[in-house]
Amino acid sequence: MFRNTCPRREPIAAQRQRAFTLIEIMVVVIILGILAATIIPQFAGTTYDAKVARAKADITTLESALERFYLHMSRYPKTEEGLASLVAPPPGAGDNWRGPYIKDLRNDPWNKPYAYRSPGLHGAKTYDVWCRGADGSDGGEGEGKDIVNWEP
Asked: Among 40, 47, 115, 152, which residue is least crowded by beta carbons within 10 Å?
């Protein structure tokens, strides 16, 4: 009694039936394309929203650093000194400057420097800090709208 231990080979015709046809592959690709076309637009605005959220967080951090600067120096940095005074002492700072108040001065999410003005022209604060948005210029609407510290 011999038992055949060799695996049984299927005929070539049976092996061909296991493969996908070109039509089946095209149907799957079309279905994936339809799914992508309906899902991707939902995420299109999230990049912009994330940049705005980061700019707001950065402005809040800069405001906190400016307040610490004020506590030590009894003044805010002048417009000419700018936000760089939070990283390195301004000329004539003497022993009052106890910084750095921030680790480094980063650019905004669109890779442009944050704008600073003291005395400020807007709101109750005595300084203005803002990001010029995607267009890189003051004012603007939509994605070019400024992100500022003087609006609620």
From this structure: 152
